[in-house]
Amino acid sequence: MKTQADAGGLFAPERVAVVGATDREGSIGRAIVENLADFDGDVVAVNPGRESVLGYDCYPDLGEAPAVDLAVVVVPPSIVVDAVRDAGKAGVNNVVVITAGFSETGGEGAERERDLVDVAEEYDLNLVGPNSLGVLSTPTGLNATFGPSNALPGNLSFMSQSGAFITAVLDWANDQGIGFKDVASLGNKAVLGETDFMRAWGDDPDTNVILGYLEGIDDGREFIDAAREVTDETPAVVVKSGRTEAGAQAASSHTGTIAGSEAAYEAGFQQAGVVRAENVQELFDFARALDGLPMPDSENVAVVTNAGGPGVMATDAVGDSRLSMASFEDDTLDELRGSMPDEANVYNPVDVIGDADLDRFRSALDTVLADDNVGCALVLSAPTAVIDYEELGEVVVDLQAKHDKPVVTCLMGGERTDRAADVLRAAGIPNYFDPARAIGSLDALAVQREVQSREYEAPTDFDVDRDAAREILEDAADRGATRLGVEAMELLDAYGIPTPDGEVVDDPADARWVANDIDGDVVMKIVSPDILHKSDIGGVKVGVSDEEVADAYEDLVTRAKNYQPDATILGVQVQEMVDVDAGTETILGMNRDPQFGPLLLFGLGGIFVEILEDTSVRVAPVSDREAGEMIDELDSAPLLRGARGRDPADEDAITESVQRLSQLVTDFPAILELDVNPLLATSDGATALDVRLTIDPEEL
Amino acid sequence: MKTQADAGGLFAPERVAVVGATDREGSIGRAIVENLADFDGDVVAVNPGRESVLGYDCYPDLGEAPAVDLAVVVVPPSIVVDAVRDAGKAGVNNVVVITAGFSETGGEGAERERDLVDVAEEYDLNLVGPNSLGVLSTPTGLNATFGPSNALPGNLSFMSQSGAFITAVLDWANDQGIGFKDVASLGNKAVLGETDFMRAWGDDPDTNVILGYLEGIDDGREFIDAAREVTDETPAVVVKSGRTEAGAQAASSHTGTIAGSEAAYEAGFQQAGVVRAENVQELFDFARALDGLPMPDSENVAVVTNAGGPGVMATDAVGDSRLSMASFEDDTLDELRGSMPDEANVYNPVDVIGDADLDRFRSALDTVLADDNVGCALVLSAPTAVIDYEELGEVVVDLQAKHDKPVVTCLMGGERTDRAADVLRAAGIPNYFDPARAIGSLDALAVQREVQSREYEAPTDFDVDRDAAREILEDAADRGATRLGVEAMELLDAYGIPTPDGEVVDDPADARWVANDIDGDVVMKIVSPDILHKSDIGGVKVGVSDEEVADAYEDLVTRAKNYQPDATILGVQVQEMVDVDAGTETILGMNRDPQFGPLLLFGLGGIFVEILEDTSVRVAPVSDREAGEMIDELDSAPLLRGARGRDPADEDAITESVQRLSQLVTDFPAILELDVNPLLATSDGATALDVRLTIDPEEL
């Protein structure tokens, strides 16, 4: 796969060739040629069997055609690779392969797809597909798809892993008056994928919002890095399907996508600044709001309504969202009182009551939008004899422009809302029947506002002993170990994650030396990769005094050998006694997701992780802010923060441990899984009491 | 309020009088007369100043008019009570008071409303309002509202606490082709309320689904009892607004409704069998599905699609719901394989692929609907050249009728879906663009299926010592106590909730007697309503041997007196030592909700209730099934069920304690709040270790 492909070039060709163009009725080759009728540039056909196709000049191959910027390939699967090679030879940069019958069919098709990738790499091609519906771009009238609908012009750019979904969306969007800048059907993503289009549209001044329907992401880390740069300015809204277990199974059988874990996607999109939509309705509700409305200054909503009941519904929706109902300044309340009858309610939601005419609505909305406490507004109206919706729509458009704050509307009703909705739509303002959807749109703005306000700090580069860590891992690899236990505590030491005093020793005298250096009694544990449950065989001794250490050493080794004569015994760990009751046991873990790489997990130990599943996840490496969010997200966070008379834990110490582990697992892809369990969080630190990890020596 | 008002009579009058009828332009009195133009029965006007109104005969008062079944009152607020009295005297049974200016305005208006209630009671009137938009009923063309729209005929009956919401809904529903049987604007609910309409529509053969927009429920227990009888046959879907804190505040300032707690509503609707909608969209999505579709036999969904991506989205939506993806029988798979091309996917979601024609769709849907594992189905289609949506709609209608299983559709697209949607709508089948909404509709059917499958068992009537309980409460009341502690353990004993051996005694000799009867050492606690934190003043002694009991008694009393010389000391509790580590501490509590009465709460103790808010709530009295659900609902339930190597708790003992407490608080409204904390759940029982309660002596 290309790492820095320029997907943007696909959408602004001057001359397009349809390779496999034909005038055969019902064929895809014909459908594409027909769809190119409105293209502002040149169209040429390539087909050795024809001299012209539907009026376009036809050439036997691309080498004989005039220079082309985009080749759309619709030839049979067996000759696709050759056709694409011809394109490469002819100096074409951008190729869309419509033809299906590649990796999605397995076996031979998958092999063909590998060949296709090789050719694309050889000629440095920006290749979409195979198995794509095509691409379109409205500014030049380019419709290089075989879909039944063209798109209206607009500023949404949309990528989809399902071509059928594009056909459905375009048909519907035309009806709704929703327009697009570019549309790309990703197909099998053999070369160009979601990250490439994210970058391209992030650089495109005509794309206001990036939309995606994705079933999987190929390289999660690359996606996060690219997307967070883009979303800092351009909102991206994505439906990731296969969210649920059932859905992931369905996605896998649909495109052969390996879904990766939902937790990884959730974390990855969060870190990438992508606004996640749960379903199609949210995808377009959010997109329209982000396209048409200015960013709010705050999350405080004002609701102006002529109907109390719907006002309450809107307030409930605010309560369900991250938004708050704005509290008005005294001046605002005074002004509202002055301009409205006594029965009106001047507090938020403002009820201008059923007999409100246009002036009263205008005055109330103007007043609340002028209030510095108000970040955005919802105008709600039930049909009454005194309100003309079209006029009310115009008032909303005017006042939104005047105050430059986002306003959405619920002008409730049937046909009578149509003309008002047109007026509002032209100004980028969505109108809904359901107050909950309107508030949901404002909520999406609040998410994007938070994304744009983030400072993306680089992960801290701690001063660690990477060589020591490498040595520990290599030693383990040398002895053929793939699962490591307490003998790897020094790995944590090397990365500055606090561990109790102590060492793994391999003779009784050393054990005494170590114990002497430790205040008070010690804990001693047999260290053997072959003995997983040490306590069960008497392989752990607590409260061992300095005098008892040597005997205890011998005893532990004897027990281990008795239990399993051929066990590899690495020695005995002699460790400071730690009072676990002096803190809260937490778990800090890592595993590798096939798409996103190292995933960090944090949670309180025991039932919190196992029964209540109260954990937080981030893709490593994490910044200090992201590590802090991992604590914030836990339902059980109050238990680390002094609830029920506990001492508050040292959160800085926890987040530092999280970041140091993040650095460790980023530095060493050989670490496949790692659990610090428990990481004991106390009021003045965080200490790793035990560790287990799995390594892949091949990756060292 | 009338307890068994017959709201049904309102909707089938033969002659309607408009009291306050007028032909003055823009007046409500005129709007109502105009809206009655299509009424099949007679209309008379009542207005002393006119001889006829808009062609209807006009009478000076109801006494002089011919006999009337329904009087719609629109006179000024000051003369409403007189007008209603006249109606009562004239033998009119049903009255709708449109006029506003009653309790919603407070003060004088509230007084006027009380007078109105008195008159309604005196004449046994079925009175809607005041402050109502009116009522309508489509079978007779009755539109006794002043709203701008009439309703299409249908089988939904709709009550709303917001008149404006009715005007918005009717306007919108006409556009959507959604029809109604009856509509009632509840207004201030001075006499008839939600429970009355629930009953009336439950008895109405023409009402298929009851819809409600409610901001509060006046008598929760009565509502539950009425609704559960109704919902066993007729589905009821309710939006209760004021769900959130912000929303509850807004509702309160809108109609003066005291919202009651959201937890109470959640429990109450669940127990009543009401399908709860979160927003307007769900209200009508659920209503349409419940109106038009047969009940499914199971919660297993089959999805048939020509588009993989939307199929995955639908599968995700199934994963989010209580539904499951159906697993097909082998015969079904064989048949699908036989009728579809190799590239099709015969597993659920069935992908008939993009080139599927009508026959392939028909065959696939027919096959999966015939499978006994399939309870319901979704047909999904993206627009293609080979599928005509109208024809596909007809196929769905036919096959749904043939198999009598609920089918919903997502024929995705814009205008091209319109005619198909009409065909489907006529057969009661909803069509959506978004697969998530389609699955949401099937989910509502699954909720209703569960409601209808419930056996409403009466709460168990345990053999308890009610007299003893009364005596304990009366003793407390006699000494002026409102807050009781361990001295009330006997209250639990009286209702058969196990407590440790022990007694409250008031001299050292008795203390010895009690201790002698108890095996092993005892716990002793000072008993005083004035000392809340006994431990803090040394008011608790654990591990007291028989020999030490008398001295301990004196010591406890001395400490208490030193701490607070004027404290009332009721004695000392001498109790068996209980090992709390031998079980799991749970909390069993009760408080009284203003609308629903006694609410029971159950959860695991400590952080589970306080930090994680993992509790379950039911309105008392509860049946055995409902008590069991209270355990099932807890996220922490596994901790009672043997997770992490614990002994499973005796759930029967817990549910019995829940039910016995339920009986206690139902028998004694004087108990305002009660907490058994902890109720120690062990493998062979549940024991109340401590109790606190608050009583209202007035209620005894």
UniProtKB/TrEMBL annotation, chains A, B:
Transmembrane segments: none annotated. It catalyses: acetate + ATP + CoA = acetyl-CoA + ADP + phosphate. InterPro entries: Acyl-CoA_Synth/Transferase (IPR051538), ATP_grasp_subdomain_1 (IPR013815), CoA-bd (IPR003781), Ligase_CoA_dom (IPR043938), NAD(P)-bd_dom_sf (IPR036291), Rhodanese-like_dom (IPR001763), Succ_CoA_lig_flav_dom (IPR032875), Succinyl-CoA_synth-like (IPR016102). SMART domains: CoA_binding (SM00881). Residues 390-452 form the Rhodanese domain. Keywords: ATP-binding, Ligase, Nucleotide-binding, Transferase. One of its GO terms (molecular function) is ATP binding. Pfam families: ATP-grasp_5 (PF13549), CoA_binding_2 (PF13380), Ligase_CoA_2 (PF19045), Succ_CoA_lig (PF13607). Its EC number is 6.2.1.13. This is acetate--CoA ligase (ADP-forming). It comes from Halobacterium jilantaiense. The lineage of its organism: Archaea, Methanobacteriati, Methanobacteriota, Stenosarchaea group, Halobacteria.
